[in-house]
Amino acid sequence: MTRLTAEEKKFYKDNGYILIRNPFTAEELEELSTEYDDLFRRKNEAKTESSWVGSDETNRKSDSPYTVKGIHNLQMHHAVFGKLLYHDKLLDALEDVMDTKNIVLHHTKAHYKPPEKGASYPMHQDYHYFPYKKDSMVAAFIHLDDSSPENGGLCVFPGSHRLGPLDDVGARETSHFHYVDQSKFPIEKSTPVLARRGDVVVFSYLLVHGSPANLSARARRMLLVQYADAHDEPLAGERAQPARGLVLRGVNLHRDATVANRHIQ
C-alpha cells in the first residue's frame, strides 16, 4: 500500500501537488518503459505532434525546430497501460489525495520530449480543458526518466490551485489551446519538481503547471492518467475519450443502467 501520511495530505492540500516516490516494482517500470518506447517507434509520424502549435486539423504542424510527440488513450494500444490503471499502490495514494473511494478514468496520454529540441509547454490549468462541478479531477504524472528543468521537467506554482479557475488567456489568443497569463505566472518563477525515474506527481487540475524546453542531451519520457471522483460531473460538453468513466476503484452509483442509454459514456 502507498498511503499518504497526515503531513503529506496537508502538503497536498496546501500546495496542490504531491511527489510520490516510485510505487512500481522494477519489473513493472521496465515493462512500462519498454512498451512506451515501442509504441512511439510504431507511431513515429507527423500525426503524433503535440507541441503547442497549429491545430488538430493540420496535425499541429509548424516550422518550429522544437517538438513534443504525444499519444492519447494508451490503454487502447497495449495491455500494460490498461494494467497501470488498476495499480493498487497508485490508487491507494489517489484515494487519500481525492478523499474518495470511488475513482473513474478520464483519459490517458504520453508525451515524449526529445533531446535538444523538446518544446516547452506554457503555464496552464487543466481545468479549462474539462471543467467539473466539484473540481475532483487530478492527474498522475509518471516519470520514465529522471526529470529536471534541464530536460524539460514539470514546473508548478505551489498553492495556485486555491485561486480557483483563472483567466483563460489562451481561449482569447487561440482557438486551440488554453493557458494562463504568462506574465503573472512566468515559468522562471515556478517551482521545478525534481523527480527520479518511476516517481509520480499527483496534482489538482486547478494547479498552474507547465514545463521548459528540453535543451539537454537527455530525453524526457512521461505518461499521465487523469482521474475524477465517480460522482462528479462535467460542467460542459467535451470530446468523448475512449473508456472515460471506467470505474477503477469503488462504485459509480449514478451510472445510467437503462438499455436505451447503454452506448452513452
From TrEMBL:
<dbReference type="GO" id="GO:0001561">
    <property type="term" value="P:fatty acid alpha-oxidation"/>
</dbReference>
<protein>
    <recommendedName>
        <fullName>phytanoyl-CoA dioxygenase</fullName>
        <ecNumber>1.14.11.18</ecNumber>
    </recommendedName>
</protein>
<keyword id="KW-0223">Dioxygenase</keyword>
<dbReference type="InterPro" id="IPR008775">
    <property type="entry name" value="Phytyl_CoA_dOase-like"/>
</dbReference>
<dbReference type="InterPro" id="IPR047128">
    <property type="entry name" value="PhyH"/>
</dbReference>
<keyword id="KW-0560">Oxidoreductase</keyword>
<dbReference type="Pfam" id="PF05721">
    <property type="entry name" value="PhyH"/>
</dbReference>
<comment type="similarity">
    <text>Belongs to the PhyH family.</text>
</comment>
<dbReference type="GO" id="GO:0048244">
    <property type="term" value="F:phytanoyl-CoA dioxygenase activity"/>
</dbReference>
